[in-house]
């Protein structure tokens, strides 16, 4: 076989006549390099890269076995085809040759046709392998140029191919990733089953392209990253799935920036709500008392009755004292920029309510009103003094609004991510929960009722609770005799 670009062959033979014979057989079709000793052959391999090597086993310095082994130790000649020539024909000799790294054997005396056939066969395989390798390297270069992660999986989700971008993002070398199972290697344990179920479901539904599946992955250095994948199934001519080809983008930084932007937006909204609440408190609790004080002062200027003046002065003092308390309460919210700055702690709502109910025991006894806790156990949420004050206002107001010999029922229910606290009061002494309340579908946006007896006003109370991440509403009972005040507080983790 004649090649347009001749392949090179190194022949190592210590007998000049045999060396001349082998060269004559092959020199028309190949470039021939010759060596009379094992060391000379190794020196040539250091300088050149022959396409095929023929080694005589019996050499005066380094035998063919050891020359073969040393050639195989070099990375660039690990796959170079090697033919061993020997007068030895035992099975053990061939096994030693195979262990040393030989691909073929020729026995002395040499047969011209056999030499040509074995050399042509190995050279053809080598050229084919080089062609495939070059094509693969060319394709790999294209893959590496791609700006996204590219990965190919077999049907068991083992990695068959990755590009450099994928290796860079995950922190692994190509060798570390190949033949590894993607799910076992990089996907968090809690996401493995979810990912496999999604892929299996898509297989059954015969989906061609799988768009935008987000999965958290773990890089080699332990960093959590978020990858969004777009995949398609690789199918044979009969439509059977042979694997999966996926492109991925690392959106970790993008999602982190998005969350940061969202957090800052929430902080700005929080700050605006705080300022709005402070303004409403000032308008609701300061302007009216100030107007009353002006009326009292104006009256003092025209009244001569000292006893009446003294009574009015006491009223003015009490009003100023109330305003001072409100100013101190309002000052807690000045300067707050985010929910994180609220002084909340993880507490059991039941224990908080029991302590507050005990404070109003005397007030309830005067009206002969019973306050009953319908719940026990642990209901943890994040609570601070402001929420406790709101609870106190609701309990106090419930006692004031309830007729004598009635019962106030306090209950806590599971409402998804919230604990729903219900303050049920009215004329009936028998606990008859409202069906609307029991349905776990409380409409917290039902804010048409103005809770007049709350010192802060219902709208301000509602906004204070929302400021703490909660929800609130007041619902009239279906029998028209009483109300249920509902507060939803987030469950503590």
Assembly context of the chains: single chain
CATH class of the largest domain: Alpha Beta
In the CATH hierarchy, the third-tier topology of the largest domain is known as Heat Shock Protein 90
- Widest β-sheet, arrangement of strands: 2-1-3-4-5
Rg over C-alpha atoms, rounded to the nearest angstrom: 44 Å
Question: How many helical elements?
Answer: 16
| Total strands | 17
Count of the separate structural domains = 4
Strand content: 15-25%
For the largest beta-sheet, the strand count, sense and barrel status come to: 5 strands, parallel
Considering the protein shown, what is the CATH homologous superfamily of the largest domain? Histidine kinase-like ATPase, C-terminal domain
Which characteristics define this entry?
alpha/beta, Beta-Lactamase, 22% strand, 17 strands, 16 helices, 493 residues, Rossmann fold, 47% helix, five-stranded parallel sheet, rod-shaped
Question: What would you note in describing this structure?
Answer:
- The structure is a single chain.
- By secondary structure, the protein is an alpha/beta fold.
- The chain folds into 4 domains: 135 residues, Response regulator (Rossmann fold); 105 residues, PAS domain (Beta-Lactamase); 80 residues; 149 residues, Heat Shock Protein 90.
- The protein contains 16 helices and 17 strands.
- The chain has a 5-stranded parallel sheet with strand order 2-1-3-4-5, with helices on both faces. A 5-stranded antiparallel sheet has the order 7-6-10-9-8. Strands 12-14-15-17-16 form a 5-stranded mixed sheet.
- Helix 10 packs antiparallel against helix 11, helix 10 packs antiparallel against helix 16 and helix 12 packs across helix 14.
């Amino acid at each position: 076989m004649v090649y347009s670009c001749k392949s090179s062959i190194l022949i190592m033979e210590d007998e000049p006549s045999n060396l001349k014979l082998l060269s004559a057989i092959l020199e028309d079709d190949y470039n021939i390099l010759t060596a009379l000793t094992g060391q000379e052959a190794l020196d040539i391999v250091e300088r050149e890269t022959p396409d095929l090597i023929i080694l005589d086993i019996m050499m005066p310095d380094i035998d063919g076995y050891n020359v073969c082994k040393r050639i195989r130790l070099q990375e660039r000649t690990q796959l170079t085809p090697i033919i061993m020539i020997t007068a030895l024909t035992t099975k053990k000799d061939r096994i030693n040759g195979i262990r040393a790294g030989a691909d073929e054997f020729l026995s002395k005396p040499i047969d011209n046709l056999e030499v040509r056939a074995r050399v042509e066969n190995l050279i053809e395989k080598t050229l084919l392998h080089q062609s495939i390798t070059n094509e693969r390297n060319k394709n790999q270069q294209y893959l590496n140029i791609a700006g996204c992660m590219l990965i190919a999986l077999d049907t068991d989700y083992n990695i068959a191919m990755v590009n450099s971008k994928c290796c860079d993002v995950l922190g692994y070398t190509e060798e570390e990733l190949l033949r590894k199972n993607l799910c076992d290697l990089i996907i968090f344990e809690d996401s493995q089953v979810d990912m496999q179920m999604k892929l299996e479901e898509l297989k059954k539904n015969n989906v061609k392209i799988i768009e935008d599946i987000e999965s958290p992955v773990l890089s080699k250095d332990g960093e959590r990253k978020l990858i969004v994948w777009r995949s398609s199934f690789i199918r044979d001519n009969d439509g059977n799935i042979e694997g999966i080809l996926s492109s991925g983008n690392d959106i970790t930084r993008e999602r982190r920036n998005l969350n940061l932007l969202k957090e800052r937006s929430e902080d700005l909204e929080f700050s605006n709500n705080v300022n709005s609440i402070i303004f409403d408190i000032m308008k609701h609790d300061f302007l009216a008392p100030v107007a009353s004080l002006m009326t009292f002062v104006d009256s003092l200027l025209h009244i001569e009755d000292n006893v009446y003046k003294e009574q009015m002065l006491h009223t003015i003092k009490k009003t100023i004292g109330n305003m001072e308390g409100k100013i101190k309460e309002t000052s807690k919210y000045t300067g707050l920029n985010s929910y994180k700055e609220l002084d909340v702690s993880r507490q059991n709502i039941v224990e908080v309510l029991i302590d507050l109910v005990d404070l109003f025991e005397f007030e309830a006894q005067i009206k002969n009103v019973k306050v009953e806790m319908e719940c026990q156990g642990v209901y943890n949420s994040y609570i601070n003094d402001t929420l406790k004050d709101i609870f106190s206002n609701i309990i106090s107001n419930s006692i004031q609004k309830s007729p004598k010999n009635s019962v106030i029922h306090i209950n806590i229910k599971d409402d998804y991510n919230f604990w729903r606290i219900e303050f049920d009061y009215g004329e009936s002494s028998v606990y008859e929960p409202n069906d609307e309340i029991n349905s776990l579908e409380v409409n917290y946006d039902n804010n048409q009722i103005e809770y007049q007896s709350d010192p802060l006003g219902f709208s301000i109370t509602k906004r204070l609770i929302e400021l703490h991440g909660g929800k609130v509403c007041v619902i009239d009972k279906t029998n028209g005799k009483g109300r249920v005040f509902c507060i939803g507080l987030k469950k503590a983790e």
